[in-house]
Design goal:
InterPro entries: ArsR-like_HTH, HTH_ArsR_DNA-bd_dom, HTH_MetalResp_TranReg, WH-like_DNA-bd_sf, WH_DNA-bd_sf. The protein is mainly alpha-helical. It has seven helices and three strands. It has a three-stranded antiparallel β-sheet with strand order 1-3-2. The chain is elongated, with a radius of gyration of 21 Å.
Length: about 120
């Protein structure tokens, strides 16, 4: 597993960080808004945000004296997807078959029509 993937899985190991990611799903939030959702101290939440930033799972931007955080969902999806395809390669085959079947006409309906004729 790459160093980057290790950082991501280490970041995901703590329930507070997973909750922060969920809280950021609807959109950007300030550090204060994020911290208000937890009973932990501000410095503790700041440390969690630092771990998430280091892993590339959240980004930050300054707006005056505020820091706004947002989810980098594609990074999480790609990293977890890469890991799963490594440990569960059959999932790639199953996904390809499912996609192939979805693109084909509904053979079950055609077969049912032929059986009733």
């Amino acid at each position: 597993m790459s160093e980057s993937a290790s950082d991501i899985f280490a970041a995901l190991a703590h329930p507070t960080r997973r909750q922060i990611l969920q809280d950021l799903k609807p959109g950007e939030r300030t550090a204060g808004e994020i911290a208000a959702a937890f009973s932990a101290s501000g410095p503790t939440i700041s440390r969690h945000l630092s771990v998430l930033r280091h892993a590339g799972l959240v980004s930050e931007r300054r707006d005056g004296n505020r820091i706004l955080y947002s989810l980098v969902g594609e990074r999480l999806a790609l990293s977890v997807g890469d890991f799963l395809s490594t440990v569960c390669p059959e999932q790639i085959v199953l996904r390809a078959l499912r996609d192939h079947d979805r693109d084909r006409p509904d053979l079950t309906a055609a077969g049912a029509e032929g059986a009733g004729a």
